[in-house]
Specification:
Shape: globular
Order of helices and strands: EEEHEHEHEHHEHEHEEHEEEHEHEEEHHH
Helix content: 25-40%
Number of helices: 13
Radius of gyration: 21 Å
Distance between the termini: 22 Å
CATH class of the largest domain: Alpha Beta
CATH superfamily of the largest domain: Aldolase class I
Strand order of the largest sheet: 9-10-8-7-6-5-4-1-11
CATH architecture of the largest domain: Alpha-Beta Barrel
Amino acid sequence: MAEPGSGAGQRLGLYVHVPFCARRCDYCAFATWAGRNHLSRPYVDACLTELRRAYDGGLGPAATVFFGGGTPSHLPGHELARLLDGIRREEGAEVTVECNPEDVTVELLGTYSQAGVTRISLGVQSLVPHVLASLGRRHNPETVPRAVGAIGEVGFDSFSVDLIYGARDETDDDWAATLAGVLGLDPPPPHLSAYALQAEPGTALWRDPDRHPDDDTQARRYETADRVLEEAGLGWYEISNWSRPGHECRHNQNYWRQGEYLGVGCAAHSHLGGHRFWNIRPLERYMATIASNQSAVAGEERLDSDHRLLESLELAVRTREGVDTDALPDDEMLAGLVARNRGRAVLTLRGRLLANEVACRLRAPTAARHDTGRSHPQSVRAGAR
């Protein structure tokens, strides 16, 4: 059972899952469906009902809101605005909407802006046609400059471009062309996320082993991205994220710092006061459960203090803030993977490529392990949408 009043005193993130898409991409394992657009309005009604119950239970206003999916831009603009209108927000709240380039128009973005959206996350993935085709993406590269131009025309405070690297049909030159093309957009993005392609079980990509990505190739692509983006003034602040100062995604930072967040909609996950829970995944079943005045929570777990502390370290080590040096042994196994300075241990570029290996060596400092009132280190999780 959800406990929306938990975690009082902490700033809240609110995630809204929008499960509608024009088609499923070959790599996508998220809860999303094509051909269900007729359910848009009743789905928004169900989300608003779930929200009202949370507010009745003591949920406070959100410092950040993130519409993810699925494809939120596939939801009619007035419906997303209606849903956002039902969300209580702090003054100056960051509100992000994920968009596909082919959906973006000045009119749609104008509706978002008037409703209170402050930030757009644009799913570009690649600027090379044959790479997009190999990913099962439906847009063509020509839609990207038009979408970014519309973002600039409407005047959003910030926006991000999302990329995916490591497709089998992608060459080093393709990746370099995508990075150069993105940085040459007008206006240029102040934030960029770059994710290594993963063959998730059950996806079309997973069922085709010939298309599975190569680890060494992906490492090389990551090194290229980090060099090119740093030279362009975008510094890394999480393994998969780079930004200009002041353009970090506050919503994702809250995830990575093990903060409080409520997920609304089918398959949405929440974390409040050490209580983690998640909603029913099937779209129609979620809506029917809400309509019958029942809880949409499908499962839950409670994290003890030791579990929460270790998890916070696993998240924190992936950020530029790193972890307390006491959390990582100073041994030869970590040579070249971690830089130690002023009591903090931060991943080097090579360490970022081997972050999971480093995380396996984390240990909770003794003082923190015995002091459950101590705040947890700032933390990060890549691709936590």
